[in-house]
Structure formats: structure tokens, C-alpha cells
Specification:
This protein has 739 residues and is an alpha+beta fold. It folds into 3 domains: 111 residues, Aldehyde oxidase/xanthine dehydrogenase, molybdopterin binding domain (Aldehyde Oxidoreductase, domain 4, 2-Layer Sandwich); 180 residues, Aldehyde oxidase/xanthine dehydrogenase, a/b hammerhead (Aldehyde Oxidoreductase, domain 3, Alpha-Beta Complex); 318 residues, Aldehyde Oxidoreductase, domain 4, CATH 3.30.365. α9 runs parallel beside α10 and α13 runs parallel beside α14. It is globular, with a radius of gyration of 26 Å.
């Protein structure tokens, strides 16, 4: 058998041709004979009890086949982490509390008709009677003792509270020669994936309720559907066709359960496609988080104390907020060794849009504060920002804020040095010094340089069960002629399926052309876990390796075809101790550092990213060109988060649900240069040493940009996004830009 080399090669994506020619179907492209159309009536209130729903006018509209309300849902609840949300809100459900709407994104009724237009008209005809309840739109106010409760089992509307208590804070502050204290605020962010929510429900040839949809974990979608419909698991099937982006925005349900409900009840295919406006209004967002924090350091630059109060707006339901806030709790002290830490982190229910997973998963918010603090400590101590980071960086064996060491394979110091070396820093006399910045001739333009860094977990955290299954079949006679890989991991546009094929080819020792992948279907493969948490390459690779090893053993024993199924389980993680926070939160990490150059127009407040250098330890670049694409994509998405994207919500209602008013970067906005520095320090338990990396390049950009703006103007911006109005206000407050 000839040994092939697939790992480390920038092979073309296996889905490239179909996508660039338009032949590849996405959910909205798929139709079935005799299909009906569904439209959803969403809530008209941010917080109210529904006392009556009159569907008669909608039901009598010609072309309408059915109207479904809460009474039609067998088990009227769902949720990824906790089932705290009704599928449909209103009277008639056996589940207590489901007669309330808690945000405008709540679904109240479904109308199924011959056409999309008739279904939409029918949805408007439904008459809903509300009994208004007090609205809570600010997390701090929602925690007041006299605030109305959104969920009876969460006093003060506190969804979660995480603590870290490490060391002796009094002793830490006594050692500090410099102390910096500040507040940081981040806002919502819209995922803005290209393909809005869409899907098709039908009954397949084996009588299963089947949903074709875009998501991030087919088996989790399946579980939530069969739970809500009270069906056996084997009677529900979920299939993903091509997926037009996700970024965490498809982890939670949108159309999956309601499509399944309609198809199950009507025994007809039912299709729905959301508009861009509906997509922005009704799927979850990145968490707005406010952080008040204080850090102290000795005169030689050693950080000795850090405290923080972190408050995140979860919105009306949990989604993944408990996990996101747990991650923010960990990241708010950055990738640094700090002997004395006192952290309190809260996730709070409000009547705002629910918040959930988004690339970075709490780390961008936590690191925005942490990296702002270390940059300000460097100024207070007259130290270079790279130098102070290297003094305090985690390294092999370091004890982090939760009182346990990081998993082996820590490369933060090497990543920091690579970032400095490849950007604006030079080593001088054993230390690091930043080069000077050349200024534009235009007096209204000022340039500055900033740095930030961070780390990100690979895989599910805090004791959440982590696993991935793969099956490999080897077909042929004297030689392997075909390798069939069954793995259900979602390719949401990141190129995961290409990497699966590369890893299978490498593990078996055949050319990629001999590998055929079967996935994206609960009927053909076991659970893979979610395409999230930077975990898919890591987890799928280990599962594929294990299955390939066992299949090759069977092949050598003359089994034809040879088949093996393998479940990979990484080292266990543990939840925070409720009082001290002590835990082993993750089994692997990735490490990143970025340096940016910005140009500030002090007259208009516009910020232009000139250059971004992003150094990322990926362990092993399975497909280097795809890694580069992930870095560039993350940087530009983070640029939008940092500078452009301002989601406006007032009293729970999103006011700019259009891409004409919610601005994301275009090709004309991207930096002049994004320099991808790909480092390969193998993770000890990663497949071929690979670490997950898709989230890492997003994390530091906001903090690095804030530091660069300060370098250019002398003004700190602690509230993201840095829109021109904010920048101008901050500059004018310091007397800058007034001519």
C-alpha cells in the first residue's frame, strides 16, 4: 500500500465546484412535489401574557390548510442547554408558563398554506389578545429585588452566577505599585450569514419526520425535535444540505421544530424561508457584556491582583448563555498568571433578543477588558506592551485563575514573540521595542499601533459531555479501492468536509480521490457534536484516526469490506466550584496574538484598519490555505464587530434589521494587509497535533484596535463598536479635532 501525504496540503475544497457554479443546493433551493408553505406569527410584545388567540379569519382564508398554536405542540419546550423556551407561546399548552411571551422573537402561531404569500397574509389575520407585563431591558435593573421575574425558578432574573476566588486580594493590592481601574462595554452582534433561515419538512420513505435545514449539529436538532413532538428518536431525521455560514448562529433552533410539527400533522411537505429582516429580528445575537475591573502590578511589571464584575445580557431565554458567561468568566483575566483574583460573573434574563453562541463565545468580550487593562498597566509602568505580556504570559504548567494548570501544549509566549517579530517590534538588548509609526501628511489623519492577545478553548467546557463518532469502511479486493467515511460533523462553510477527507486519506494511506464522505444526516452517521467551540477538526480527526486504525486491523485480517466505528472521548472537564471557581474547564486551547495599525480621522471619527498581523498556533495546519482563509475571515468579521456593526435595540425591539442600516464590512472595508502568521506547535492530544483555530483570530482585534486608537490620539475607547459618533465624542471631550 502506497503511503500518501494529505495532511499539510492546501488541497482544493471538495465542495468548491458546486458552490461556485451554483449547482450546490442550500435549504431554500430544495422543493418537493405538493409542498405547502409556512409563515410564522411572532410576538407583538416584549413581555405579556396571551389570554386568547383567534385564528378563525386566518383559517377561513382561501388556500390556508392549517393554523397551529401552543395547544398543538405535544411537549411545548425546547432549548440547547436547558429547555426554558416554548415552541409556541399561548394558552392551551400543558406546560406552565408557556402562555407568556418574553421577547419579540417568541413564536405564537404557524400558518400553512398553498403559497408563501397566502401564508403571510394568514399570519397577519390572527388576532392575539395580550395582557401586558413589565418589560426589563437593562440587566442591572433586572437584578433588582423588586423586578418582575421572567422565569419563576431564577430569583432576581439571575440565570447564572460564577465566582473565582484565588489567593489573597488584600495582599495582592498591597504589593501593587500601579493600579488601573476601568469599565468596558460591548454590544450585540448579528451573525449576518449569507443564507437566512430556511427549511423543508416532510415524511420520508420510511415514515420518518424529516427536516432539511441548516444547522450546526444534526443530532442535537433531532433531539430537540423528537422531544417537542414526543416521538421516538428513530422517527425523526435531520439532513443538512449546504450551509451558508453559521458562526454559532445556527446552534439554537429557528425553523426546525415548527417545520417538523407542520409536516407531522399534515403529512405533506412544508417549506419556509425567512427574509433577511426576519433573520435579523428573530435569531439570537452575541451577548452584550459590561465589565468593571481593576488590575494591579508591581513596578517591574508583574501582575499581582485582578478583580472584575461581569454582567451579561442573556435576553429572554438561556440558549447557551450559561456556557458563554462561564467562558467570559475565565477569559476576563486574559492569558496571564495572576496570583490573586476575585471575579463575579452574572448572566441575566431580560426581555431583549435572546443571546447565544457567536464566534469566540464570550472570549471577545472578556479579552476586550483584559487586554485593555494590561495595555493600560504598560502605560502606567512605562513598559512596552509586548514586554509586559511576556513577563506575565501563561506557559507550560502555569496555574490559571481557576486554580489548576493549563493542559499541556501551552504556546502563548512563542505566539507573542512571533507576533512582535512579524509586525512592529524588534528585539533590542534582550528586550522588545516597538518601531516608530510614520504619520500621514494630512493633519486630520493620525496613525497608531496596538497589540492584544488571548487564548480559546478547543471543545466543550465545564463538564459538558464531549464525544465524536466516526465510521470507516474499506472496500476493495487485494488493495483498498474505496474508503467510505461516515461522520456527521457540519460543514458550515469553513471547509470541514475537505479536512475530514484529508484526515481519512492520511489515516488509511490512500489518495483523497478514493475517499467518499457520508455526513450531514442523522440516518447515516452517529453524533459528531457541534460545529462550534473550535472543536470539529480536533474531535473529528481523533474519531477518524481511531476508526481508521481499527478498520485497517480488520483489513489485514482479510475482512472485506472492513468496517470499524470509533468513539473519541477527550479528557474530562469539570464545572466551576460554586464558591471558588476551582475547575479543570477545558482539555485543550489555542493561542493567538495580534498587532494592528490604524488610521484615525480626527475630523470625522472614521477608523481605518491599515494592517493586521495575526499570529495563531494551530498545532498543525491540516489545510494551510483554509487556515489562512479562517484567519482572514475572522479578522474581517472582528473588524465589523469592532468598528462598524451597531445593532440598535430599544425596549426589546431591534430597530435596524436590514443590511442597509446594520453595516457589515465589504471588500472595500478590509485592511490593506492581513498577515497570517501560522505557527505549528503540536497539541499533545490533537490529531497530527492539530488544534482548533477558527475562533482564535477573532478574539484580540477589538482590544488591539482600541490600543492603536489610543496610540494615535491619546484617547481610550472602552465601548464597542467604535463608530464615528463615539470616536468624535471621545476626541472632542479631550479637545482633539477642534480646528
Amino acid at each position: 500500500m502506497d503511503k500518501t501525504v494529505a495532511i499539510g496540503q492546501s488541497v482544493k475544497r471538495i465542495d468548491a465546484l458546486g458552490k461556485v457554479t451554483g449547482e450546490t443546493p442550500y435549504p431554500s433551493d430544495i422543493n418537493l412535489d405538493g409542498q405547502l408553505w409556512m409563515k410564522i406569527r411572532f410576538s407583538d410584545r416584549a413581555h405579556a401574557r396571551i389570554t386568547a388567540i383567534d385564528t378563525q379569519a386566518a383559517e377561513q382564508l382561501p388556500g390556508v390548510h392549517a393554523v397551529f398554536t401552543a395547544k398543538d405542540v405535544p411537549v411545548n419546550e425546547y432549548g440547547l442547554v436547558m429547555k426554558d423556551q416554548p415552541v409556541l407561546c399561548g394558552p392551551g399548552s400543558s406546560k406552565p408558563g408557556t402562555d407568556k411571551v418574553r421577547c419579540y422573537a417568541d413564536m405564537v402561531a404557524l400558518v400553512v398554506a398553498d403559497s408563501e404569500a397566502i401564508a403571510a397574509e394568514g399570519a397577519k389575520l390572527i388576532d392575539i389578545t395580550y395582557e401586558d407585563l413589565p418589560g426589563l431591558f437593562e440587566p442591572e435593573a433586572a437584578m433588582d429585588d423588586d423586578a418582575a421575574l421572567l422565569h419563576d425558578d431564577h430569583p432576581n432574573n439571575i440565570l447564572c452566577h460564577f465566582r473565582i476566588r484565588k489567593g489573597d486580594m488584600d495582599a495582592g493590592w498591597a504589593q501593587a505599585d500601579a493600579v488601573v481601574e476601568d469599565e468596558y462595554h460591548t454590544s450585540w452582534q448579528e451573525h449576518a450569514y449569507l443564507q437566512p433561515e430556511a427549511g423543508l419538512g416532510y415524511i420520508d420513505e420510511e415514515g420518518r419526520v424529516t427536516v432539511i435545514v441548516a444547522g450546526q449539529w444534526v443530532h442535537e436538532d433531532q433531539e430537540q425535535i423528537y422531544h417537542a413532538l414526543d416521538l421516538p428518536p428513530e422517527q425523526v431525521r435531520v439532513i443538512y444540505p449546504a450551509i451558508g455560514g453559521a458562526f454559532g448562529g445556527r446552534e439554537d433552533m429557528s425553523v426546525q421544530i415548527v417545520l417538523a410539527l407542520a409536516a407531522h400533522r399534515l403529512r405533506r411537505p412544508v417549506k419556509t424561508v425567512w427574509s433577511r429582516e426576519e433573520s435579523i429580528l428573530y435569531h439570537h445575537k452575541r451577548h452584550p457584556i459590561s465589565i468593571r475591573t481593576r488590575w494591579g502590578a508591581t513596578k517591574d511589571g508583574m501582575i499581582v491582583a485582578a478583580e472584575a464584575r461581569v454582567v451579561g445580557d442573556a435576553g429572554a431565554y438561556n440558549y447557551t448563555s450559561t456556557k458563554v458567561m462561564g467562558n467570559a468568566n475565565l477569559m476576563v483575566t486574559g492569558a496571564y498568571v495572576i496570583p490573586n483574583c476575585h471575579i463575579d460573573t452574572y448572566g441575566v434574563y431580560t426581555n431583549n433578543i435572546p443571546c447565544g453562541a457567536f464566534r469566540g463565545f464570550g472570549a471577545p468580550q472578556g479579552l476586550f477588558a483584559a487586554e485593555g487593562q494590561i495595555n493600560k498597566l504598560a502605560l502606567a509602568l512605562n513598559m512596552d506592551p509586548l514586554e509586559i505580556r511576556l513577563k506575565n504570559s501563561v506557559q507550560e504548567g502555569s496555574i490559571i485563575s481557576v486554580g489548576t494548570p493549563l493542559p499541556k501544549g501551552v504556546s502563548m509566549p512563542q505566539v507573542l514573540e512571533a507576533c512582535g517579530r512579524e509586525s512592529f517590534w524588534q528585539q533590542v538588548n534582550g528586550g522588545w521595542r516597538r518601531s516608530d509609526t510614520s504619520q500621514p501628511n494630512n493633519p486630520a489623519l493620525r496613525r497608531g499601533i496596538g497589540m492584544a492577545a488571548g487564548f480559546k478553548n478547543v471543545g466543550f467546557s465545564f463538564g459538558f459531555p464531549e464525544q465524536s463518532w466516526a465510521t470507516i469502511e474499506l472496500h476493495g479486493g487485494s488493495q483498498i479501492e474505496e474508503v467510505v467515511v461516515r461522520h456527521s460533523g457540519a460543514d458550515v462553510g469553513q471547509g470541514a468536509h475537505t479536512v475530514f477527507v484529508q484526515m481519512a486519506a492520511e489515516a488509511v494511506g490512500v489518495p483523497m480521490e478514493k475517499v467518499r464522505l457520508l455526513g450531514h444526516d442523522t440516518a447515516t452517521a452517529d453524533t459528531s457534536g457541534s460545529a462550534s467551540a473550535s472543536r470539529m477538526t480536533f474531535m473529528a480527526g481523533n474519531a477518524i484516526c481511531g476508526a481508521a486504525e481499527q478498520a485497517l486491523k480488520a483489513w489485514k485480517n482479510e475482512e472485506r469490506p472492513a468496517k470499524a466505528t470509533f468513539q473519541y472521548r477527550p479528557p474530562k472537564t469539570t464545572m466551576y466550584d460554586p464558591m471558588t471557581g476551582k475547575s479543570e474547564p477545558n482539555f485543550a486551547y489555542g493561542y493567538v496574538a495580534q498587532a494592528v495599525e490604524v488610521e484615525v480621522d480626527i475630523e470625522t471619527g472614521h477608523i481605518r484598519l491599515v494592517k493586521v498581523v495575526s499570529a495563531n498556533d494551530v498545532g498543525r495546519a491540516v489545510n494551510p490555505e483554509q487556515v489562512k482563509g479562517q484567519i482572514e475571515g475572522a479578522v474581517v468579521q472582528a473588524q465589523g464587530y469592532t468598528i462598524l456593526e451597531h445593532l440598535i435595540s430599544r425596549d426589546g425591539r431591534i430597530l435596524n434589521p436590514y443590511l442597509s442600516t446594520y453595516l457589515i464590512p465589504t471588500v472595500l472595508d478590509v485592511p490593506e494587509e492581513v498577515k497570517s502568521v501560522i505557527l505549528e506547535y503540536p497539541d499533545p492530544i490533537g490529531p497530527w497535533g492539530a488544534r482548533g483555530m477558527a475562533e482564535m483570530p477573532f478574539l484580540p482585534l477589538a482590544a488591539a484596535t482600541a490600543a492603536a486608537i489610543y496610540d494615535a490620539t491619546g484617547v481610550w475607547l472602552n465601548s464597542q463598536p467604535f463608530t464615528p459618533d463615539k470616536v468624535v465624542a471621545a476626541l472632542r471631550a479631550q479637545g482633539i479635532g477642534v480646528f
